[in-house]
Amino acid sequence: MKEVVFPAASQGEQDEEGAPLVTPATEQEITEGGGAPCKDGAAAAPVPARAGRTLSSLGAVLRMRGVGSVMAGLVLLALLLGARRWIDLDASSLLGSKVNIGAGERRRHHRGNTTAPLVPIPFTCGNKTSRQPPKCPGTPAPPPSMTLAVPDDPAASCPDYFRYIHDDLRPWRGAGITREVVERARPHAFFRLVVVDGRAYVETYRRAYQIRDVFTQWGILQLIRRYPGRLPDLDLMFACDDPGQVRAADFPKPSEAPPVFRYCKDGSTLDIVFPDWSFWGWPEVGIRPWTQMLEEVRQENERVRWPERQPYAFWKGNPEGYRIRHKLLRCNVSNGKEWNARIFTQNWHHAIKNGFKDSRIPKQCVYRYKVYVEGNAWSVSEKYIMACDSPVLFITTPFQDILSRGLVAGKHYWPINREHVCKSIKFAVDWGNKHPEQAQLMGEQGSRFVREEMSMDYIYDYMLHLLTEYAKLLRYKPTVPEKAVEICTESIACPAQGLHRECMMDSMERHVVGFNPCTLPPPFTKEEAKEIADREAEVLRKVEKMEG
């Protein structure tokens, strides 16, 4: 086997220090024209043991990402060490037997082949002169087609990242969840959501930043419209702030920990990961619902093809208060040193005044490489960055959301060592520019993942499976809290105005779907976890050697 020669960093490279060419912003953390931090949290899982919080090497960082990253490592090994698919070499001796790295590799889409008639869902705001929100109508009965399950059809399997639903709920799998345990989560929660007989009720404890709480509730209401009669009675607490506070170390008996739903987690907390609010839009920063944003980005990708893009790594956002982002600022050209990066801060006062014309996400798809970096925790910008058909230089992070758990390093993104960010970015850009076909393929595969595996079909299916599995653990019959109020599509959308109303109307489910949700795959087995962990160890050694 001939040896692959990778571009190496020159000896005696100067430190990453250098005056950034940008002015720090002070506004709320939002990246890439619409990224924001989330929660951190985590649950024990039968996956390879994660490293501690110290991120002293690329290996340690990748290990913190759990099974998803371990699986990712197998493909990264193929990319960096010589798989035929990437650099014309055979790495079978390194990979050994084939490992299942994701349902997307073997599964056709389970949508679009139904002949069931569409069942429209009524929507009306009634008397437009009334200041009172309209009364919530009844939920339509599910059509007969929805009772025709096809569990034996392998095409109906959900993507592998759905398997983390089992991991998130594992702390309560044995003992179950009592009302007392749920109410123990109240100090962390922004609202309590109860579903009884297909109708939703909310008790608000405090308002979230901007519309995080409202659009999260909106998403659940659309789930109920989409799959009427499918959502069981449930009672949950939802936190919309940063960071997570339910620490695993505080609960030697995990089942006594309060179950708190959040948008992301890390290895030290016990939060339950849920899709973030921006899938239904983020009007405060001019971001449309996810389906519309994907179409806008697709058009921009067609307009500026990857070879025609600027051959640098791009990031734009707010660095204030985040050490890792200040490290990224140093990667601009400074003291005559070219790090192959173009890093900008976002001035949100100016952006709001000019209608976000200079901050539109699609217009940022003009660079060959996009950088993803965490903020206070995970950042909403992740999915928008991934959609540009440009390889994403992913600064490794301990935070997990539903998207990052499905990503495969070396296939969907290039991992960047957070301990020497600028050097790692320069190496990645140099490699990509010298291997344009492989780099372009990585960008396309990352974008294909967010378009297909993160389509709204799957987002709703993830929500349905998560809430259904959670409801199975309740050891009591949910009842409507005394101070809760009923919410429905009409009660939220009809009083809304401006872009808030537009986002809701654009993301509203108008028909009952005529097909079944995908089938939830089983948890990771101990054998899978061991095999993945063994292979990860070899991958990490090779990656660290390459980084030098």
UniProtKB/TrEMBL annotation:
SMART domains: CAP10. Transmembrane segments: none annotated. Residues 1-46 are annotated as: Disordered. Residues 230-477 form the Glycosyl transferase CAP10 domain. Coiled coil: none annotated. This is Glycosyl transferase CAP10 domain-containing protein. It comes from Urochloa decumbens.
